[in-house]
Every structure is written in structure tokens, then in C-alpha cells.
Amino acid sequence: MATRTRHQQPSRFGGTGTEHRRQLSELSDSDVVQTFLDGEQRGFDELVQRYDSRLLNFVYRTVGDRERSQDLVQETFVRVYRHLGRFDQSKKFSTWIYTIASNLAKNELRNRSRNPLVFFQTLKKNWDADHRPLEWEDMQYKPDDLFRKRHLRRRVEEAVARLPEHHRIVFVLRELGGKTYEEIADITGCNLGTVKSRLNRARNNFAQIIAPMID
User: Fold this and answer.
1) If you average pLDDT over residues 190-210, what whole number do you get?
2) Which residue of 39, 75, 151, 167 pairs with 202 in a disulfide if CB–CB is 3.0 to 4.6 A?
């Protein structure tokens, strides 16, 4: 019996477009991937909705150029669309898509003649406190506090921009993206020992660079 392509498969969702989107939003990444492979174009749209902003934040803080970052994220989704049928569904989709975006970002850096400005959100008092992404501004702060945080942000941007590429990638993934060591290892293709070593060096280098800026 001939195998049907994904565009030949009938929809397994009913109801209105709004109800359809709600049903998709309740699925895991793996299930959404499968719906797309089964012929549901909206499955891919759901993946874009889930990862567009996250990937843009990650790539932007790696390459430091908003417009170019948007191009790279778009290219990431193009590659996902083309190669999703070859994705190993026993793996995490998030790791796979971040790996694609990370490789594109690294290629962008290598093609530049100058170091990019990489935006990092804030200093972290305890590097291993948690995995949550950090936020710069809190409206509970008084105006003077916000001014100081914004001043600090500029210094942090300058410091992170001076980190070597391989340190910057793990630094942004961990300290901004909240990725675990295991996820970073998968994304970068490095073993855990290398990830931890690079991250430790990145933190030390960052601390040395930022210290005279905030004295």
C-alpha cells in the first residue's frame, strides 16, 4: 500500500479555527510535530508561535543585530520545515531547534569582521540559583533604581560582547535562556565536561571584564 504524504492525511481536529488552535496549544511539542507530519499545516504554525520569540531573544543576544537575528530565526524555521521529517522524535524538539539556531548564529559570527554586541540581561549574584531567564526591569523599582539598572545593563552588554564566541554561546544559553547543562551539551555538540569548563571560564572572564566597569 502506498504511503500517503503529510498533505494527503485528513485532519484529526474539528471545530472552528479558534478551537483548532486551542487544541493544538494543549499538545506537547512531540505531538504537534506529529500533527504536522500527518498533514496539519497548523501544526507547524503552532511550533512557530511557541519558539519564534524565544529563538529571537537567544539569537539576538548572540549576534547583537535585531534585523539580522530575525533573518536567522526565519532561516531556522525554513530548515525545520524542510527537515522535520528526519527529526528523531525520541529527542527533544526544543534541543533540535535551538541547535539549528545556534549553528546559524555561530556561522554569522564567524562571517563578521568585527565582534558583535551581545545583549545580556543582568548580573547574577548566584550563578546556579535557578534556571529561569532573567529580567532587567521590574516596575516595583523606584526610578533611581531603574536608572542604575539600565546603566549596569550597558556595562554588561559591553562585557559580554568581549567574551569569545564559544564562551558567549554557553553563557547566553545558561544565564539567559535557562538551559540545563545537558541541553547545552546537546545544542552545542559538546560533552558535559566541556560545557561546564567553558561556562566556568566564561563566568570568570565576564567577572574580570565587568569589575572595573562598575567600580
Assistant:
1) 90
2) 167
Cβ–Cβ contacts within 10 Å for residue 150, how many? Answer: 11
Contact 166, 111 (CB under 8 A): no
d(CA 206, CA 86): 39
Q: What is the pTM of this model?
A: 0.62
Q: Which of 151, 133, 149 is nearest to 58 (CA)?
A: 133
Q: How far apart are CA 23 and CA 185, in angstroms?
A: 33
Scored b (16 or more CB within 10 A) or e, 93-106 reads: bbebbbbbbbbbbb
Is residue 188 within 8 Å of residue 195, measured between CB atoms? yes
Q: Could you give the CA distance from residue 149 to residue 172 in angstroms, rounded to a whole number?
A: 19
How do residues 89-139 score in pLDDT, each as one tens digit?
Answer: 889 999 999 999 999 998 888 776 343 333 333 334 434 444 444 444 444
Number of residues in the chain: 215
Q: DSSP characters for 57-110?
A: HHHHHHH--HHHHHHHHHHHHHHHHHHGGG--TTS-HHHHHHHHHHHHHHHHHH
Most confident of 26-30, 171-175, 176-180: 26-30
Cα–Cα dist 155/74, whole Å = 30
Answer for the pair 107, 79: CB distance below 8 angstroms, yes or no. no
Question: Higher confidence at residue 68 or residue 141?
Answer: 68
